[in-house]
Fold:
Amino acid sequence: MLELRPNCECCDRDLPPESPAARICSFECTFCADCAEGVLAGRCPNCSGELVRRPVRPADRLARFPAATGRKLKLGGCTAT
Ligand SMILES: [Zn+2]
Ligand SMILES: [Zn+2]
Structure:
């Protein structure tokens, strides 16, 4: 099951499960749209994979399959390459 992480790994912005601004890579590294399309230029800084829009989990499924709560933050933030 897709891990819905609660924040952007670059800027620590909150990304709730219903947020249309969440972006993920195939390893579920999670970023906001501003970082993904800005400083990261569409590539995950951890695995170089593609960042795509995270699908929104329907609210009626969230009760049974809740979003992750552990916040991940990249040490030193993200820098353009
Ligand atoms: Zn961000
Ligand atoms: Zn990644």
The mean pLDDT is 96.
